[in-house]
Amino acid sequence: MSAAGAQSFRWLWFDGERLSLDPDAGGRRFGADPRPFEAEPVRGAWAHVCAVADDERARIPYDQPEIQLARADALAWWIPLLGDSLVCLTTLSLDAVHYGGAITVARNADHFRADPFARLFPGRLVGTDLFGEVPSPPGPVLERYAGAPWPAGRFPAASG
Question: Above 80 in pLDDT, residue 157?
Answer without folding.
Answer: no
